[in-house]
Design brief:
Length: 313
């Protein structure tokens, strides 16, 4: 079969790979892949910088996608069994790692709602337990996941939705998705950023943090009593100094997030909610289709674009 094959740490190459055989994986689910996303975790894994990074080569890259099972079910799938991955004509996943998708939802959209969709919705619902009227701040919220999180916060009834980021044009585009205010961090001190967040949000109840670093400290300082920060990514820095008195004075909480912390039932529930919103046309998913044969170019571009790159075998 054709696949995106990783021969060493770095970027995958388009080439041939032996297809999974049913006899070898009697407890697995064989899937004919129709769409596979390129995620940040795929890039880190391929670079050898993640705990899921392979130790033997060659392997097929990709953690998720959408396709059709041997009994003709349309499914979203995750966690292919090594050495197989989602970026191929076919793959195999453990039983229980598929979720049915309705005929009304296209395969590329279904693929995009997995890793990115859960990282957008579950920090709000399962970690922060956002309530209608809560003021939400999204740090680094103008990217792929953040744009989904803006819409999720709106659909959950957030009071204000403030998006913080570096790219002014990308921030401006989030207003159409439901952002009530945007703040560009360029040239702002922590104190200035804190004041801007407080003014724009009316006081913060929930922070979904895709950046960490100094923006996280500024957002917490702009918080209302009981402010909850959910830590998802660290693009602005791996560490930050959080004064103990700041956390105590606000009763603030900081919680690390990964979907698996909430278990498969919560992940499935979140995915179904996202699918329902898409089916009702309440949620917009931005993506670009790219032939699997062009994986090298798509891989390079995926680190900079603000929509999801989706490979089609």
């Amino acid at each position: 079969m054709k696949a995106a094959v990783l021969h060493r740490y770095g970027a995958p190459e388009f080439g041939n790979f032996d297809a999974p055989k049913p006899s070898t994986y009697p407890d697995g689910v064989l899937i004919e892949v129709r769409a596979a996303t390129i995620n940040s975790i795929d890039r880190f894994t391929a670079a050898g910088k993640h705990y899921l990074s392979p130790t033997r080569f060659p392997v097929v890259t990709g953690i998720e996608g959408a396709g059709v099972t041997t009994d003709n079910q349309r499914v979203y799938f995750g966690r292919p069994i090594t050495p197989f991955g989602s970026m191929a004509e076919s793959t195999v996943v453990p039983a229980g790692f598929t979720i049915p998708i309705p005929d009304s939802v296209d395969f590329p959209v279904a693929a995009c709602l997995g890793n990115s969709g859960m990282a957008a919705l579950m920090p709000l619902t399962d970690t922060a337990r956002v309530q209608p009227g809560d003021n939400v701040v999204l740090l680094g919220g103008s990217g792929v996941v953040g744009r989904l999180a803006i819409q999720a916060a709106r659909l959950l009834g957030a009071g204000t939705i403030t998006v913080v980021g570096r790219d002014k044009s990308a921030l401006e585009a989030t207003i159409a998705l439901g952002a009530s205010a945007t703040i560009a961090t360029d040239k702002l001190s922590v104190e200035q950023l804190c004041a801007a967040i407080r003014e724009a949000s009316g006081g913060v109840d929930v922070i979904v943090d895709y950046t960490w670093g100094e923006p996280a400290r500024a957002a917490i300082a702009a918080g209302n009593p009981g402010v909850r920060l959910v830590q998802v990514g660290d693009r602005a820095g791996a560490t930050v100094a959080l004064p103990a008195q700041l956390l105590r004075s606000l009763g603030a909480s900081v919680t690390g997030f990964m979907p698996v912390h909430h278990g498969p039932e919560a992940m499935m529930r979140a995915y179904r909610q996202l699918i329902e919103w898409v089916d009702r046309r309440d949620l917009i998913v931005d993506y670009e289709l790219v032939p699997l044969a062009d994986v090298a170019a798509a891989w390079e571009r995926s680190a900079t674009v603000r929509h999801k790159m989706v490979l089609v075998p």
